[in-house]
Specification:
This protein has about 500 residues and is an alpha+beta fold. Helix content is about 35%, strand content about 20%. It contains 19 helices and 19 strands. The strands form four sheets. A seven-stranded mixed beta sheet has the order 1-2-8-3-9-7-6, sandwiched between helices. Strands 4-5-10-11-16 form a five-stranded mixed beta sheet, with helices on one face. Strands 12-13-17-15-14 form a five-stranded mixed beta sheet. A hairpin with a 2-residue loop joins strand 14 and strand 15. Helix 1 crosses helix 2 and helix 13 crosses helix 16. The protein is elongated, with a radius of gyration of 29 Å. The N and C termini lie far apart (about 105 Å). The structure holds 2-acetamido-2-deoxy-beta-D-glucopyranose (NAG) (2 copies). One 2-acetamido-2-deoxy-beta-D-glucopyranose (NAG) binds next to loops.
Length: about 500
């Protein structure tokens, strides 16, 4: 009797084992790992626990204390907050993390498990690409795709991607870390979605007025002391990680780097692939009123020097004129922009704006400006009749120079850089202080509906090697606007003297 029972159990056991082995083999035989994911879900990850999900509140990038959310946050069961770099969709606002997709819930759970098991970490985040790592080197490449470490020094925030990397395995396999397939990087900044302990969040809070730069502001205030684990096996869908930088700005709610600069006295943000500025410079010695091509290239922005405002204005003028030509909006270069063109074939570096005249009839055609916006795309914002009846065109991006900054540092894992902090550069930076409000710092084009006579004929002027249309009687008009206009004027901003 006893023996018979074993005769049944043994083959059954064998069949179960064999099936499992075959399944495993099938999973690891090819790169398409849909099957392995299934296995992982069934055999490695415990099912999503109600307890865990209710321990997290999800907060948007510009979260302002709201009674309802604060009351939810105050509950003892809430241990973590998930911070996302965008506005929350209404259903996520009301449902919280329960409204996330199944995949995102599973990814979130990995971060929670990591934090539950790692009491000395304040937060955790995932990676930007979903791949299975095959060892330390591929883990390193994956982890270093995104920001990890920052340091603030001499009005500069350097953001780099290095940080110590450790093996990380689900707890039941911790005995064998040499065969790790999951790794995590120790960071002190997160620029994508991340989970933070509630207590840490409450001690620092999220500052809504820092808008789309909330992440940078938040981590700046942490003074680099937070420990954030970046997990190689965690990947949120874009629904969690997208930035709504642009959506924000086109609603006219334009809070950008200058707020960060103003609050923290930060002028320069140095990343591995670019240098961004919270404001441009219009210093007369550094940015003389001369065509850009004739400027000494030793003062290049690629070396870490400030970016001259007239470089930005030149870019926005030529881009906008291209778009207006396509749409069929006739223009004339006028006021301070014409003054610079006639006087020096360049821009007046210390003017705040570029001035264009258009027909009154065109100015009233909203569709034409919508078309201009479509051509300009997301890099610019056309504020139609922003300052009625004047239309204003802004750039959406901070003054930026695309440059590989690795060579400034003493190695891949270093923050030491003398080149970026030479006394010459620091002297130029000092002149930019204090950083003021965005509205003042931002350069733009103003488009004025103008008298019909200005369009009866035209002449051409050159600005930075490019030809533009202006009024037929430029000399007469300039005399009328500015008097003895060929004289270089004392350093004053166009806001007070040149404009309109
Ligand atoms: C630059 O930073 C160093 C170290 O943080 C400091 O000693 C120095 O005074 C700073 N220089 C200026 C010009 O702020
Ligand atoms: C252009 O038109 C203006 C006024 O309409 C006139 O005073 C001026 O002489 C014209 N210029 C040329 C070059 O024809």
């Amino acid at each position: 009797m006893r023996q018979k029972k074993w005769e049944v159990i043994c083959p059954l056991f064998l069949v179960v084992c064999l099936t499992f082995t075959l399944l495993q083999m099938k999973c690891f035989s090819g790169p398409s790992s849909t099957c392995s994911k299934k296995i992982k879900r069934h055999f490695r990850l415990p099912p999503i626990e109600r307890f865990h999900m209710s321990s997290v509140e999800i907060l948007e990038w510009d979260y302002q204390p709201e009674d309802e959310v604060e009351a939810r946050l105050a509950r003892n069961v809430v241990k973590y907050v998930l911070m996302v770099p965008h506005k929350l969709q209404p259903w996520l606002k009301s449902l919280g993390v329960a409204g996330l997709s199944l995949q995102d819930k599973q990814e979130l759970q990995k971060l929670l498990q990591f934090l539950d098991a790692s009491p000395n970490f304040d937060g955790a985040m995932g990676v930007l690409t979903q791949v299975r790592v095959k060892g330390f080197n591929s883990a390193k490449t994956l982890l270093e795709e995104s920001s990890c470490t920052f340091l603030v020094k001499n009005w500069t925030m350097s953001i780099r991607n290095f940080g110590p990397i450790h093996p990380h395995e689900p707890s039941h396999r911790e005995d064998d870390s040499s065969k790790a397939t999951n790794w995590f990087q120790e960071c002190n900044i997160a620029e994508t979605a991340f989970v933070l302990r509630k207590s840490t969040f409450q001690s620092l809070r999220w500052r809504a007025e820092c808008g789309s730069m909330s992440h940078l502001d938040f981590f700046k205030r942490s003074e680099g002391l937070l420990k954030i684990g970046k997990l190689s096996n965690c990947f949120f869908s874009p629904a969690i990680t997208y930035f709504d930088h642009q959506i924000l700005q086109s609603t006219g709610y334009y809070l950008d780097y200058s707020t960060l600069g103003q609050i923290h006295s930060i002028l320069r943000i140095v990343r591995p692939d670019k240098i961004e500025w919270t404001k441009c410079t219009d210093d007369k010695q550094f940015c003389p009123e001369k065509p850009l091509t004739s400027r000494p290239n030793t003062l290049a922005a690629a070396d870490g020097y400030p970016i001259c405002c007239d470089v930005l204005m030149d870019e926005i003028l030529s881009t906008l004129v291209d778009a207006m030509n396509k749409v069929g909006i006739e223009y004339r270069v006028v006021y301070g922009t014409l003054l610079g063109a006639v006087r020096s074939q360049s821009m007046v570096p210390y003017s705040d704006d570029v001035d264009l005249a258009i027909h009154k009839a065109d100015n009233d055609q909203y569709e034409k400006f919508q078309f201009v916006q479509r051509i300009l795309g997301s890099r610019y914002f056309v504020a139609w009749k922003a300052n009625p009846p004047v239309t204003r065109v802004f750039a959406h991006y901070a003054p930026t120079v695309a440059v590989n900054t690795q060579h400034f540092f003493k190695g891949a894992d270093s923050f030491e850089s003398d080149a970026l902090f030479s006394s010459k550069i620091l002297k130029e930076m000092e002149k930019l202080l204090p950083v003021k409000n965005v509205a003042v710092e931002q350069r733009y084009v103003d488009v004025y509906p103008s008298p019909e006579e200005w369009f009866e004929n035209f002449t051409e002027v050159t600005i930075n090697n490019r030809r533009y249309h202006t009024v037929g009687n430029a000399d007469k008009m300039l005399k009328m606007w500015y008097g003895d206009y060929m004289k270089i004027r004392p350093e004053v901003h166009s806001q007070n003297t040149l404009a309109t």
